Amino acid sequence: MRQLVLAFLALVLSCLSVTAQETAIQPLLQEHQAVIVKSSRKTIAPAIDAIANSGLPQAQQVLETWAAKNMWMRKSDGLFFIGEKGAGKTYDLTDFDTGETIGRYEKSELKQLKPNSGIRAMIGTALVQFQLSDPDRTKRQDALTSIQRDPEAALLQPLRASIAGESDPDLKAQKLRLERLLTIGYDPDTGARVAAISDMSGDLGVDVRATLNPLLVTTRMAALTLPEGVNIARTLTPGDDGFPKAEAYALLVETNRAPAIVTADDMRAALAANIDNGTVGGTPAALLNTEAARQSVYEVLAEAGKVPPLVSEADVEQALANHVFFDAYSEPSREVTNAAEDAMKDISLNVGINQTLDLTLDAMSLASIYFLAAIGLAITFGVMGVINMAHGEFIMMGAYTGYVVQQIIPDHTVSILVAIPLAFAVTFAAGVAMERLVIRWLYNRPLETLLATFGISIALQQIAKNIFGTQARPLTAPGWLDGAWVINDVVSISYIRIAIFFLALIFLGVFLFIMKRTRLGLETRAVTQNPRMASSMGINPGRVNMLTFGLGSGIAGIAGVAIGLFAKVTSELGSDYIVQSFMTVVVGGVGNIWGTLAGATMIGFLQKGIEWLNPSNTLAAQTYMIVFIIIFIQFRPRGIVALKGRAAGD
To answer: Which of 641, 579, 565 has its CA nearest to residue 406?
Structure first.
């Protein structure tokens, strides 16, 4: 009886020992000890996979410890532990299976595992399946990012398994999308792949196109007959369909289906290599001074098997006739490639529509910038008839005013709110001073006005350089204007551009209110239409001209603050916009705010359209635009919206 009890206890202990070994990860580490210690990227994959797929709860901790370079091997027995720095050159070792600290060891008794960046990347990929369901949201997000960066077939099932338990709506949406993409690329079920492609059809995401494009990659091939079981994209005829005969024969040569064509240089090299006592194939080398002689001797050498045979035109034609040429998909499933082609067509159409929308938004944004820069010039040039070449410098002064305000007021939102009215005041005063001191003496003398304002422009630029230097100064937008409104992967527009667009609309309304609802607007319109009659009615044309010029200059200053938020603030800032401002006013119609708006819209759309057709050369786009405008003015010299009165030359 006693012997039976002892035998039973031994059996129980044996089972417990087996169970402990089955739930311990140390035996698995010992099984791959040599590979782990060697730490070679070429051989480490089986060890990482074995740990990750072991199903043991310690697997995640082992991989994380290994990647963090905190895994140590005890040299005496080759066991692996978690190592933590102790006093001096000692380390405290913790067992992976029990979680107990087994003691403190000298560094000389241990070996630290230091995986390189490549191995750490492989470990990171293996950790993804654990991190997908980690309680920490950050780790789950990192796992999804890792899958996006390095998708693998092995990650599809863990990803699917983690979707049902995902509590975060954003992460769940990301997981569902990634599951569809990995299904397209790696699911063994053709029907599931086709269904996933159908689900993503028309999607504008770059990741979708990156997943579908490899399915449609083709390899150009040649064979005696069309092979069975190959997913053929198209058959090709040499000489047709952009498939030259030379390219077709080169493919045959490359695949060892035909001999290479012997060129004249090849022939000379072969003859030179076969010179023997001054003769080649029994012919003196001195006689090989013609193409026919060299070819004749080369054929003798070819018959003797010393050089490759010549390939005639008939040989080429016969070789091409004996073979079929085709492009074969790398993806073997015809159903998958058909679905991918249909999806890419839908995506291409959707991308084209959205690119048009994006181009339209860009054009509207550029038009609003030109309108904002030109609205002040529409007043000074359009209403008063003054060619103010210093208008760009008022824009520059406004931008520098914003910069100075930001140096005093660090809050960018408050500084911009202060800078806008202050820039108006500064440039309004500068415009009034310029009109009183210079412009008033040069009315109806356009050439002298142009030269005088051009000189003032140069002087203002030099003053700005003396004060602020030549280095670009930052004019920082408020934080709420950072970033862009992203509609999808194709269409987006920065918040600063949106703000400038609405600012342009505001100034359009302000200008219309001033011109239609205020005394200054009434007097300005009167002076514009008939200055003598306005003077006889008690209106002071000089005062009206002064205030009008100051108003146009003040608006230019506000435009400078807006433009400075996205453009570099330098003394040449105004020079970048003066030409477009004049073109906007002239094309739109001198003296009419609606004409200025139309001109800005036309130039903005025209420039963006030309840049889209010729994206690699923006200078050429500017040139084409100017040429177009010159031609346009020839047919409509008074602009899109013509105005009668002094500004129109009546």
So the answer is: 565
Q: Classify residue 170 by burial, with Cβ atoms within 10 Å: 0-12, 13-18, 19+.
A: exposed
Q: What distance lies between CA 405 and its chain's CA centroid?
A: 34
CA distances from 409 to 412, 413, 414 (A): 7, 9, 7
Phi/psi for 227 (5° steps) reads -75, 155
DSSP, residue by residue, 111-131:
EE----HHHHHHHHHHHHHHH
Nearest to 402 by CA among 575, 541, 562: 562
Q: Whole-angstrom Cα distance, residue 33 to residue 47?
A: 9
Rg of the Cα atoms in the chain: 40
In this structure, which amino acid lies at residue 32? Answer: H
Q: CATH 1.10.8: does it fit domain 351-648?
A: no
Cα–Cα distance, 407 to 402 (Å, whole number): 9
Q: To which residue do tokens 């904002």 refer?
A: 372
Beta-bridged to residue 68, according to DSSP, are: none
Mean pLDDT by 10 residues, the chain (650 residues): 48 41 80 87 87 83 88 90 87 88 89 88 80 85 85 85 87 92 91 92 86 91 89 88 86 89 85 82 80 83 83 88 92 92 90 88 88 81 77 91 91 89 93 90 84 91 90 84 81 86 86 83 76 78 84 88 86 83 80 82 86 69 78 79 52
188 contacts: CB under 8 Å, gap ≥ 6 = none
Domain parsing of the chain, residue ranges = 2-119, 132-216, 218-329, 351-648
DSSP code per residue over 248-310: HHHHHHHTTSSPPPPPHHHHHHHHHHT-BTTEETTEEGGG--SHHHHHHHHHHHHHTTSSPPP
Residue with tokens 């003394």: 571
Could you tell me the two tokens for 173?
Answer: 């949406």
Asked if residues 425 and 558 have their Cβ atoms less than 8 Å apart, the reply is no
| Strand, helix or coil for residue 80 | strand
Q: Are 372 and 563 in contact (CB under 8 A)?
A: yes
- Three-class SS of 316-384: HHHHHHCCEEEEEECCCCHHHHHHHHHHHHHHHHHHHHHHHHHHHHHHHHHHHHHHHHHHHHHHHHHHC
Whole-model pTM: value is 0.66
Rounded-to-integer distance, Cα 350 and Cα 208, Å? 13
Nearest to 497, CA basis, from 510, 516, 482, 518: 482
If residue 563 lies in a helix (H) or strand (E), which one and from where to where? helix 541-564
Q: Which amino acid is at 268?
A: R
Give the largest CA-CA distance in the chain. 138
- Residue the block writes with tokens 């084209």: 352
